[in-house]
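quick one
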Amino acid sequence: MKPIAMITGATSGIGEACARRFLQAGYRVIATGRNVAKLNALKDEFGADLYPLVFDVRDRQVAETSVASLPAAWSEIDVLVNNAGLALGLDPEYQGDYSDWDTMIDTNIKGILTMIRTVVPGMVARNRGHVINIGSVAGDAAYANGNVYCATKAAVKSITDGLRIDVAHTELRVTLLKPGLVETNFSNVRFHGDDERANNVYKGITPLTGDDIADAAIYAAQAPKHVQIAEMLILATHQANGSTIVRKN
Ligand code: NDP
Ligand code: 8X3
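structure w/ NDP:
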């Protein structure tokens, strides 16, 4: 039987690239997200190897019942990729928007915790599984106006480290991927649909793609069982950290 990867936020960017990469590597994929049309399109494209599951990671009850509703053939999740997440706004901390802050905290921190709390007990019971969390270079150090988004990704780092400690007595593995600039829908969402501002984020540098991060995820998943890729920082070549980016005109 093919192993199963569950990927949150599989409807765009890094999550969609991970879904495609895991399918290509011979996994069956539970693709989760809020965009029903996109999930249906993935189902049409991949057929029996893809199981679409519609829920918002912020809705704890629906997330739990959705995972509990998986048919037996799809219930033994081998790899959980906690990818769903977002940045909203790029403003000084003393001027940030409360609603944006709440959405980032509810999605990036509480959403990942919900997925871990829902899926990992089964992995521990089977003594088999791998959790891959998508953090960010933004979690390594705050950058100007990144404040709350950076804080959520620093929290993802701590949550990942904590889980790794708490399952160290099992065969489970826990990985944190920390991408730098990846050209996806991320900046369009961050700037609330201001596409021109979003495009400027990637001007003068060749950014990473979702596929680059998916390659890192599958590398970690396919490492020999005794090898735990604990953390990977993946940057574009002319990016040195969250705030040092050398652009060419
Ligand atoms: P995208 O905006 O392209 O994709 C984000 C995905 O997350 C979408 O499928 C989106 O679904 C989903 N999502 C957002 N909120 C929720 C929610 N409440 N419930 C379920 N799904 C949700 O951005 P990326 O692919 O770039 O982002 C993926 C992850 O990578 C995020 O955690 C981000 O922080 C992280 N990251 C991104 C980097 C970048 O430069 N792009 C760099 C480092 C980390 P929907 O379409 O319904 O909103
Ligand atoms: C996304 C990368 O540098 O825009 O986490 O914060 S960055």
